[in-house]
Design goal:
Number of strands: 21
Strand order of the largest sheet: 6-5-7-8-4-9-10-11-12
Shape: globular
Helix content: 25-40%
Distance between the termini: 79 Å
Radius of gyration: 26 Å
Structural class: alpha/beta
Bound molecules: thymidine-5'-diphosphate, magnesium ion
Oligomer: single chain
Strand content: 25-35%
C-alpha cells in the first residue's frame, strides 16, 4: 500500500510543490495552491508499484479505414463545430465562463436529440431539478424525454449508467461538482477533477455513450479549471462571448475527429440560444456606415468566411504615456501595427490614445485582420469614413509590406454576397483572381492604404 503524503497542487496548472505559497511559481497564478493528499514516491514508481505487468500485443497501422460514425445533434452550429455530430464513445469538454450559456446550449442539444428517440441523460450537479425544469420550460422543451438527474457522486453515476442500456449521450454539468470517495481531495480540486473525468471517459469508451463534460473557466483557483482535463478528452469546445452582447461563439480548440478553429455562432435570446447561420449579416447588422473609424474585415473562422466590423478611436492623449486598449484582438498586433504605421508610413500616433474594438464581441485571431485594423485606425485619425461598400483583408509585415492570406476567393464571395462592391486586398495574391462581382484594389505596401485614404473626402 502506498504511503500517503501531503503535496501542494496548483489548481490552475497542476504544478506540485512541497510548500504552500500565495503565488504559483510555474504559472504565476495567485491563490491557486491547495493542499492535496498524494501517494508518496515518484509518480512513475507509484504507478508500477502494483506488481508485474501483463504483455500487450501490438497491431499494424494498416487497417481498413473506418470513418467515425456521427450522430447529428440537430443543432447545425453545434454539429459543425463537432465536425459533423457526436462520435459514439468519445468525450467532449465544453468550457466557458460561468453564465455564458453552457447549460442552455447542452439542454437544448439534449432535448433535440432526445426528441429523435435517443436516450439522453443530463446530470446536473449545479442546479436543482426544479431549476433545470424551469429552464426547460423557458426553452419550450419541458416535454422532451431527457432523463434528468442531480447525482454528483462518481461511483453512483457509473453504477447508474451501467445498470441500464447505455445512453446515447451523457451530459455532466459540471465536471467540477463531481467527487469520488476514493480520491482523497475536496470536490473541485485538480485530483478529484482528473480522477472523476478519467473514470467517466473510460466508462464512455467502454459503453459507447458520448460523454459531454461541462467545465467552468475559473479565475480564482478555488476550483480547478477545465484546462487540466483537456488532454484526456477527444474534443475541446469553448463557449465564449462578451457579457452584455447577445452573440455567443462556440469554438473548437481540439478535435480528434474533426477540424479545429471551426466556430458556431449563436444568439442568446429570452427563449434560449438561437443558431445564427449567416453570422456576417448579424455582425454587420447595426453598422454605423458613415462614421470615421470603422472598416469591415473579411475574415475566416475555420472553413467559414465571416465579415466583421473593426472599430478604432484615435484621439490626442492627455497622458504622458498614451493609452492603448483592445477588445477582441491581440494587443501585441495592435502595437506592431502602430509601429509600422509610424515607421514606414509616417502616420504619427505616438501622442494619441488608441482604442480598437471588434464589433459584436467576436475575438479575431487571424493576422489577416491587420489591413482592416489599419484602415480603421487611419480612418479615425484622418476623420475620413472608409467607403461603406469596401472590405479589407491582408497581413502587414514589419517592413510595411502587405502579404497574401489564404482563402481569398471565399472571403471575396462572402463580401459580394453581402453587397460589398470593393475589396482592398494584398497585391501578391490578386493577379490570378477574376473578379466578377467585386472590384479589387490590390495594394502591396501599407503606404498604399494611407494613399487610398488621402484621396477620400473628409466627412
Ligand atoms: P446558463 O446556461 O445557465 O450558463 P452556464 O451554464 O454557462 O453558467 O445561462 C446563463 C445566462 O443565460 C443567464 O444569465 C440567463 C441567460 N439566458 C437567456 O438569456 N435566455 C434563456 O433562455 C436562458 C435559458 C438563459
Ligand atoms: Mg450551468
Amino acid at each position: 500500500m502506498a504511503k500517503i503524503s501531503k503535496a501542494y497542487v496548483c489548481q490552475a496548472c497542476g504544478a506540485v510543490t512541497a510548500r504552500w505559497s500565495g503565488k504559483c511559481a510555474s504559472c504565476g497564478e495567485w491563490n491557486s495552491i491547495i493542499e492535496e493528499q498524494t501517494p508518496s514516491g515518484s509518480p512513475a514508481l507509484v504507478a508500477i508499484r502494483g506488481g508485474k505487468g501483463r504483455l500487450t500485443s501490438f497491431e499494424t497501422l494498416a487497417a481498413a479505414p473506418i470513418d467515425a460514425p456521427r450522430l447529428p445533434t440537430g443543432m447545425a452550429e453545434l454539429d459543425r463545430v463537432l465536425g459533423g455530430g457526436l462520435v459514439p464513445g468519445s468525450a467532449v469538454l465544453v468550457g466557458g465562463d460561468p453564465g455564458i450559456g453552457k447549460s442552455t446550449l447542452l439542454l437544448q442539444a439534449a432535448a433535440k436529440l432526445a426528441q429523435t428517440g435517443a436516450r439522453v441523460v443530463y446530470l446536473s450537479g449545479e442546479e436543482a431539478p426544479a431549476q433545470v425544469r424551469m429552464r426547460a420550460a423557458r426553452l419550450g422543451l419541458a416535454h422532451a424525454p431527457v432523463a434528468l438527474g442531480t447525482e454528483t457522486n462518481l461511483a453512483n453515476i457509473v453504477a447508474t449508467l451501467g445498470s441500464t442500456v447505455s445512453p446515447v449521450l451523457v451530459i455532466i454539468d459540471s465536471v467540477q461538482t463531481l467527487w469520488s470517495e476514493s480520491v482523497e481531495a475536496a470536490p473541485g480540486t485538480i485530483t478529484q477533477l482528473r480522477g472523476c473525468a478519467s473514470a467517466l471517459i473510460s466508462h464512455a469508451k467502454g459503453s459507447g455513450s458520448t460523454l459531454v463534460l461541462v467545465g467552468h473557466v475559473t479565475k480564482d483557483g478555488q476550483i480547478a479549471g477545465p484546462k487540466v482535463i483537456e488532454h484526456m478528452v477527444d474534443t475541446v469546445l469553448y463557449f465564449e462571448g462578451l457579457s452584455g452582447h447577445q452573440f455567443r461563439v462556440l469554438r473548437s480548440v481540439k478535435n480528434r475527429f474533426g477540424p479545429t478553429d471551426e466556430i458556431g455562432v449563436f444568439e442568446m435570446r429570452s427563449d434560449g440560444l438561437k443558431e445564427v447561420d449567416n453570422p456576417s449579416a448579424l455582425f454587420l447588422s447595426d453598422r454605423d456606415r458613415d462614421a470615421p473609424g470603422t472598416a469591415v474585415f473579411a475574415g475566416m473562422e475555420g472553413t467559414r468566411p465571416i465579415l466583421v466590423e473593426i472599430q478604432a478611436l484615435v484621439a490626442p492623449s492627455l497622458l504622458g504615456t498614451p493609452r492603448r486598449a483592445v477588445v477582441g484582438w491581440d494587443p501585441n498586433r495592435l502595437a506592431m501595427l502602430l509601429a509600422v504605421l509610424e515607421a514606414r508610413c509616417g502616420v504619427r500616433l505616438g501622442s494619441h490614445d488608441v482604442y480598437l474594438n471588434v464589433a459584436g464581441g467576436l475575438r479575431l485571431q487571424e493576422p489577416a485582420a491587420d489591413l482592416a485594423a489599419a484602415a480603421a485606425l487611419i480612418s479615425s485619425l484622418t476623420g475620413k469614413p472608409a467607403p461603406e461598400d469596401t472590405v479589407y483583408f491582408g497581413e502587414v509585415s514589419l517592413t510595411g509590406a502587405v502579404r497574401a492570406v489564404g482563402h481569398m476567393d471565399q472571403r471575396l464571395k462572402e463580401a459580394a454576397k453581402l453587397g460589398f462592391a470593393r475589396a482592398v486586398v494584398p497585391a501578391v495574391a490578386s493577379d490570378n483572381w477574376e473578379a466578377k462581382d467585386i472590384r479589387l484594389s490590390p495594394i502591396s505596401q501599407l503606404d498604399d492604404l494611407v494613399a487610398l485614404f488621402s484621396t477620400l473626402p473628409v466627412e
